[in-house]
């Protein structure tokens, strides 16, 4: 029986690799297994070795108190108020603890200044614990920073590139405590859709059941599916999950138009439909120009120089175009109709808002 399951899983996996995925997405790209997730880590530490670009310890106490605490661990007792260093900076550390990380695994660490340091370039992070939301230490970070920027100044001038107060340490943290894993709940797997949808969750359940010829997937709600592995043997669970993650499913999505007014970006979903509507687009152009006119008196005369300004105002309104959009058009027809009247992205924002206000837009209009 075990050999048969292995052969079946191998044939299924090989077939999925050769399948056409032009109109579908892999299940691993639209859903995730409950309990398999990343965890955020944070810590507070010191960066030393800066060339006079560290915190001003006279203004802030972040670096001085942290330095006094660190020296106290080495048996050196120093009053924090007496510390005056400019080659030390207090920093915050952030890292992402990946699922299934084991003791000895390495993580990338992002280091950000929390004081008034000018630059972290050339600094070295002292040994710093990284804690999870539960307050427990999961990793230890240390190493030289890589800063993708600079800040130079002198003589009243200053030149900066990117953010010199933020650095990164590649593989700078070592995992000391493994994150808890609850992938299997009572011998079952819970799949969670990234975007809950009743149609998508129904398609996922149907695809899993048809693939294994058993009713092993049961949808619980719009975003959750309970899957019971057909074999309880531990050696067969990983190949089973590999097959499930690579199943091809066509996700459904709501009709939506997303507008970013700050950048003038408009994104229209493929399911956006319109009722019959007429769109008129016009442009009003106003130009104001000023030309100084100088009247210079003859030499040795008692006349004064007179400066006058000749103003010219030109108002031009381009003729508007009326485009009739028939009922039930899709995104392709809509784009062609709007392009025919030469609208810009910012014009599209006003047009979509007006169409939505008229009730002709059958989609969710989201403004960010």
Could you explain the architecture of this structure?
By secondary structure, the protein is α+β, with helices and mostly antiparallel strands. It is 23% helix and 38% strand. The protein contains 7 helices and 21 strands. The strands form 7 sheets. The protein has a 6-stranded antiparallel barrel. A 4-stranded antiparallel beta sheet has the order 2-11-13-12. A hairpin with a 5-residue loop joins strand 6 (124-131) and strand 7. The relative contact order is 0.12. Residues 7-14, 16-22 and 284-290 have low confidence and may be disordered.
What is the tally of beta strands?
A: 21
Percentage of residues in strands: 35-45%
Number of helices: 7
The major sheet is characterized as: 6 strands, antiparallel, barrel
Low-confidence stretches: 7-14, 16-22, 284-290
Helix content: 10-25%
Main sheet: which strands, in order across?
Answer: 3-4-5-10-7-6
Judging from the principal axes of the Cα atoms, what is the shape? flat
Domains (count): 3
What's the overall average pLDDT, rounded? 77
State the end-to-end distance: 55 Å
User: Could you say which structural class the secondary elements and strand pairing correspond to?
Assistant: alpha+beta
Summarize the helix and strand pattern as letters. Answer: HEHEEHEEEEEEEEHEEHEEEEEEHHEE
Determine Rg (CA atoms, Å).
Answer: 32 Å
């Amino acid at each position: 029986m075990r050999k048969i399951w292995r052969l079946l899983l191998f044939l299924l996996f090989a077939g999925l690799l050769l399948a056409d995925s032009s109109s579908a997405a892999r299940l691993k790209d639209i859903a995730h297994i409950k309990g398999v997730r990343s965890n955020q880590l944070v810590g507070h530490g010191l960066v030393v070795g800066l060339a006079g670009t560290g915190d001003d310890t006279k203004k802030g106490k972040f670096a001085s108190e942290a330095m006094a605490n660190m020296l106290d661990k080495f048996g050196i007792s120093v009053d924090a108020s007496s510390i005056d260093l400019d080659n030390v900076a207090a920093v915050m550390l952030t890292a992402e603890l990946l699922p299934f990380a084991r003791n000895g695994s390495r993580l990338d660490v992002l280091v950000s200044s929390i004081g008034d340091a000018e630059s972290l370039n050339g600094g070295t992070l002292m040994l710093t614990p990284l804690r999870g939301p539960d307050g427990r230490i999961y990793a230890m970070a240390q190493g030289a920073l890589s800063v993708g920027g600079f800040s130079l100044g002198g003589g009243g001038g200053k030149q900066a590139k990117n953010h010199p107060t933020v650095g990164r340490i590649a593989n700078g943290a070592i995992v000391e405590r493994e994150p808890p894993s609850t992938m299997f709940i009572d011998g079952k797997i819970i799949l969670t859709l990234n975007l809950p949808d009743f149609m998508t969750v129904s398609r996922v359940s149907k695809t899993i059941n048809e693939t294994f010829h058993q009713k092993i997937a049961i949808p619980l709600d719009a975003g959750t599916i309970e899957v019971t592995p057909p074999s309880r043997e531990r050696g067969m669970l990983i190949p089973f999950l590999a097959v499930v993650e690579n199943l091809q499913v066509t996700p459904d999505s709501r009709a939506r138009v997303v507008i970013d007014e700050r950048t003038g970006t408009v994104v229209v979903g493929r399911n956006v439909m319109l009722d019959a509507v007429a769109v008129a687009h016009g442009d009003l152009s106003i130009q104001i120009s000023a030309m100084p006119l100088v009247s210079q008196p003859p030499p040795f005369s008692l006349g004064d120089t007179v400066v006058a300004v000749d103003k010219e105002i030109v108002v031009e309104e381009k003729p508007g175009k009326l485009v009739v959009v028939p009922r039930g058009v899709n995104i392709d027809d809509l784009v062609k109709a709007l392009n025919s009247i030469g609208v810009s992205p910012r014009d599209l924002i006003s047009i979509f808002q007006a169409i939505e206000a008229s009730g002709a837009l059958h989609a969710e209009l989201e403004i960010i």
